[in-house]
């Protein structure tokens, strides 16, 4: 006995067709354009040797705390290249994760649904679609993990710079005390 098909209203059909059109547009237009544009980006045009350079400005005179012009050692970091790369990647990955979500929704709507609960007659294409959905979910998760790693990079860098500032002030107070 063939499986029963779910009843579909005109609203559901229009939503399905809109999602299908968006998915086809993403696959045929947007993704190839993204590949070309990201392949042509020259992220390493400047010397990467400047990325890890830092300049420390140390105050040699002792100032009172009441003075508003008390200056701690200021760590000036040269991370403009990293910030620009992260900004580019953050925007592109966020957009591509959204595209993966739309394509996953479209693939989910392509799966055959059965009312009687008998899934033994599921066609082979259903398994391929499930594999595609699993792969799109994996790509989404990796995109989110990469975005989390960018946040973790800035948190770690802030902790290190805070430690450097504190270590610099400790060294200055030890030098003054002896």
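^ Assign residues to that structure.
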């Amino acid at each position: 006995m063939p499986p029963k098909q779910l009843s579909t209203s005109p609203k559901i059909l229009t939503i399905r067709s809109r999602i299908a059109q968006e998915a086809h547009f993403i696959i045929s237009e947007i993704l190839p354009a993204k590949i070309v544009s990201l392949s042509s980006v020259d992220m390493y045009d400047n010397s990467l040797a400047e990325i890890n350079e830092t300049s420390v400005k140390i105050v040699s005179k002792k100032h009172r705390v009441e003075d508003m012009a008390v200056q701690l050692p200021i760590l000036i970091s040269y991370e403009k290249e990293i910030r620009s790369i992260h900004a580019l990647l953050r925007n592109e990955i966020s957009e591509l994760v959204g595209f993966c979500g739309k394509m996953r929704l479209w693939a989910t709507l392509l799966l055959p649904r059965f009312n009687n609960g008998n899934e033994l007659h599921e066609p082979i294409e259903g398994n391929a679609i499930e594999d595609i959905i699993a792969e799109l979910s994996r790509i989404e998760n990796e995109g989110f993990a990469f975005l989390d790693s960018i946040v973790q990079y800035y948190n770690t860098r802030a902790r290190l710079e805070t430690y450097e500032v504190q270590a610099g002030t400790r060294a200055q107070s030890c030098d003054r005390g002896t």
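The chain has a mean pLDDT of 75.
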